Amino acid sequence: MLETVLEPGTADPAASFHERQRAAYRFMLLARLLDDKFAALYRAGKIHGGVFLGRGQEALSAALGVSLKKGDVFAPLIRDAAGRLAFGEPVLDTVRTHLGSPLGPMRGRDGNVHRGKPREGYFPMISHLGAMISVVNGALFARRLKGVTGMVGAASVGDGATSTGSFHEALNQAAIEKLPLVLVVANNHYAYSTPNERQFACRDLADKALGYGVEVQTVDGTDLSACLNVVGSAVGMARAGRGPQLVIATLLRLCGHGEHDDAGYVDPKLKKSPLGRDCLKVAEEQLLRLGRADAAQLAVWRNEAIHEIEEAVARVQREPAPDPFAEEWRAISSKQLSEGHE
Amino acid sequence: MPQIPIIMPQLGESIAEAKVVNFLVKPGDTVEADQDLIEVETNKATMAVTSPCRGRLEKLTAQMKESYPVGAVLGQIEATQEEAVRLGLDVLPPVKASDTDRLAKSDANGGKNRVQPTVRGLPVPANAAGASYLSPRLKARMHELGLSAADLAGIAGSGAAGRVTVEDFEKFITQIEKHRTSEASMMRVTVADAMRRSWTRPIAHVGLPVRLDPLFAYRKIARPKPGPALCALRALAVALAENSAPAGRLVGSKIVHPSSIDIAFAVESEDGVFVPVIRDADKRSLKDLIAPYNELVELARARKLPPDATGGSIATVTNFGTFGLEWATPIPLPEQALVLGLGAARHRPHWDGVKGQFVPVMEANMTLSFDHRVLDGGAAGRLLQHVSDLMAHPEQL
Amino acid sequence: MSITYLEAIREAQAHALRDDPRVFIYGQDVGAFGGAFKATKNLAKEFPGRVLDSPISEDAMIGLAVGAAIEGLRPIIEMQFADFSTTGFNQIVNQAATLFWRTNVPCPITVRLPVGGTPGSGPFHSQSMESVYAHYPGLIVLTPATVEDAYSMLLEAVAIDDPVIFCEHKFLYYHLKAETLPSEALPVGKARIAREGRDMTIVAHSAMVQDALAAAAELSPEGWEVEVVDLRSVKPLDTDTVMASVARTGRLLCVGESWPWGGVTAEVIARVTSEGYDLLDAPPQRLNARDTPVPYHPNLWTAHRPTTRSIAAAARNLLRL
Fold first, then answer.
1. Taking the model in full, what pTM does it have?
2. Catalytic choice (C7, C11, C15, C58)
3. C281 and which of B137, B261, B390, C160 could share a cystine (Cβ 3.0–4.6 Å)?
């Protein structure tokens, strides 16, 4: 299975670039197929609430995931299906959360992209964009206080999140404390339907780095190799103690904001430009061209991924829905302080 | 010299305001405590606002013919300091931020600062207006003790508008417990409840003397012998069979007519009364009713009446004459509108116009208690007369 | 020796820092300056690296606390004024308060809010935020009214594994004094009978407890014995103690410094009325601040909020019903 081959979560940055490239591609593929599956389930009415895909952003996300190692902390966002898998999230967790299974990490209490396992350094997002960055800061701060070194905290945001107060406060805070934060901004040019020119007035998001006093790199988010290089180097610099690292990636979302949205507002010129190319195809071409995989291998990987997904979905669909009568309706851990009032 | 305000008092339950109709004093006058100062008119009466203390009337701020709510300031009296303190009256306070300086110690009970009390003596109707207000707590206590609103009559209420508070109630109960008490039997409690419920209606009574000589003459030859009560019962049945309206029951704005002439009669037992029923008393003659009647009396005395022998009757007959009473005003059962009562038979002188002298006759008072919502005096009287007439010919009953 | 409410809070923090290496304090001006109210005076010196100045970023302050808590630390976040916590409101109610519910990982943060009005403090330095936070599931809200409780409840707050909103009343900081700090205390979640009575119950919390006690003292010579219940914690709210008190007295007046709509007074009355309806001999009453922002001028300020005088008047009204 995929797990044994890739050993998720232990992607060693010291491993050769080629290995990371192959690993990243496989996570991208898995993420893409998983997203397709969720889209299909959504259209079949099998998913409650919304479905949010990361189609078009897999390269950036996977690059981040494979650049992190066990012991790092990661706060992914909406389009990070690939990065989450690369960081070690089991497919079963994703499927269970989307289908609301009480056996998933969120136990039906939260759904779709709002998932994580905090104690394993994998933070579940809340819907307020930018809010997770300071939580990552806190984890980094705590480790430092405990004398732990050599770790990195990564947070993903989009262009929209850069307008929030939480983004501003958190990046500023990380810079003041010189925390090993890697903040990856996926500028896909639209926050829901809002284009960049209505989101920020600076020439380039990268210009903000000067204002915050942090280092920044930019990258073409559709190019896996480029992403691996840039994100890898940002992670390395943060780990080496150079303070927060900002990465601004440009790409395009190849789906709606959610599956309920048709993204009709996206400028067709953008779609037709190099920005609109499919990073998965680009990555495939790179692997083939550089001889790091052949068509047969790609097909095998694809089939394995499909199989794994189908099995997971079939299994989870047999699991019972959460039982409100079996739920412990208590929001605090201290039982003796909990009130039974309705 | 402190200024004591003249405040519009609470002039009666549910009074919210009053109109100034007359000033009895003028500024500069010296006034005594409780002296009438201002006449005010409420929607119920004209009353006087009195002076809160002795002093000099400083000013009257109220205007003639204007209405002021309870608690409004109508004027000021200038009083001596001692007078103000003696009566514990308020001076209109300036608001001081230093009120909050009272937080000197954690244990504020030991605070030495004395704050001027606010205006006294004003009961507040608020949302608990009315002497009949029963708080949830009071109702719960009453329920616990098996009491009803009727049991509260006669308890002095100290709450707003004179309502009975839980404290008043508990004091009453404690008082009760100081007296010797005995358990009321189940029967007693049941009858008490029935009488209370019955009494929610306006019950009236009429009566007339009925001659029993024909009945006593008939008894000399009849076998078996009918008693006076059974005779009255049968007579009532015949009368009601002809016109059942007097036994109708008022439910809302409808009169429910009886469907059969079932009449009950009272049998006294140890601690209460049983009321077995003669069904279709209009359909059997007096002679045929004697045996069933006697049997029911036996069963009642032995407390062995079957369930179908009671209930569902439209009237009751009671022979209070067996207690030696000549007159009584029984209360009908809650589900009935009529009680026919028969008193003790006595020898009475009766003027015989033909003979031109008094002759002795056997007479008993017969009374009819009725629900005055269904029946008026005239109709009641006519029914009673009809029954009396029927009893003059017992052989035809 | 006499110790103020503020000193008790400082002592508790020193105690926590000393006994538990997981504790740290993060807030504006808390380091060398010792905090706007001196609640952390000298602590940065005594515990180097554990009492840190934050930028003016309430959102990031709380977010950092949550991240640190996930990693097993026990952060104390000092908000400079309760009123400013609204800029961190999202992180408190949507991040900290939902973490355990969503992930089964507890969030042991303590957020200290200087609450309540003082003469001249105005609309943005006077708010009592307890009902807003109590409304959200996942939070514990404490409102100490005494020096002893300021000490013991803050220690307990740090020890509790859930997010605690610790409402310390600014007016009590310097005005309330005690002889010594307690060695034992009622646990969080238990209300205290601050004054035993017979004729009615006043339920209050935070600084209003002191005003309620003064009102009760005023009524005593008039022949009324008023029982005063100090809630101590607004969430969880000790319904049992309140109910037992109303069972004794039959009359209830709830007093709160905050606004009427959905305040603590409303919550107490809702509970007593729905669960203890038959205990009431008169309709329950409440006294709150007026439904306007807190005014600046002391004349307006004292008329805006319940005072000993207005509490006594309300009590008399209730006693006469």
1. 0.74
2. C58
3. B137
